[in-house]
Design brief:
single chain, alpha+beta, Aminopeptidase
Length: 181
């Protein structure tokens, strides 16, 4: 499946979606705290994320050589504005299933970048011959994301009650959604 490069023109801006490369490591490190600070619907807090450029490059390189894993970036100029990572589960009996996570820069949310990245990943996963089920976990309060996932064919599978305790002491459920091939 071709995941080389997909171009989106959004509001006069050219966004390129492609597989992550080593050269993206530093830009991903710049992107991560933006996401962690912008949304309360991600599990990682800013102070928990302290990856080094070497760790990011190793993650990108390891994923690039894995037949059923992929990292996609959406790039505007040299800035990462979207990130999607997918990997199948390592245990043999569940290796036909894989989970993905996705994030889009707040300045680029609602422009179709996330949808396009998910469609590219699903197309790639479908064509690997190794993936039969793709799933994700989403905060139950993230209604826009849930609507997008449903639009793309994902079905709610289960709910983890009070799975997340926010910094203000309130709890949030996690919803797992899936699509089968």
């Amino acid at each position: 499946m071709d995941t080389a490069e997909h171009i989106l023109n959004i509001d006069g801006k050219t966004i390129i979606i492609r597989r992550a490369q080593e050269a993206n490591a530093e830009r991903i490190l710049e992107f991560a705290p933006v996401i962690f600070n912008a949304y309360d619907q991600v599990l990682t807090t800013p102070e928990e994320f302290n990856n080094t450029p070497e760790q990011e490059r190793a993650w990108i390189n390891t994923t690039a050589t894995h037949p059923s894993a992929i990292i996609l970036v959406a790039v505007y100029g040299d800035q990462v504005v979207g990130l999607l990572d997918f990997a199948t589960k390592p245990k043999k009996k569940i290796s036909h299933t894989g989970e993905f996570g996705i994030s889009v820069h707040p300045d680029f949310i609602g422009k179709g970048i996330g949808s396009k990245m998910i469609k590219i990943m699903l197309d790639w996963a479908r064509h690997t011959g190794l993936v039969e089920k793709v799933f994700l976990k989403v905060f139950a309060t993230n209604l826009k994301a849930i609507a997008l996932y449903k639009k793309l064919g994902f079905i709610e599978e289960c709910r983890e009650i009070k799975a997340v305790k926010q910094s203000d002491g309130n709890y949030t459920d996690i919803i797992q959604m899936y699509v089968l091939f």
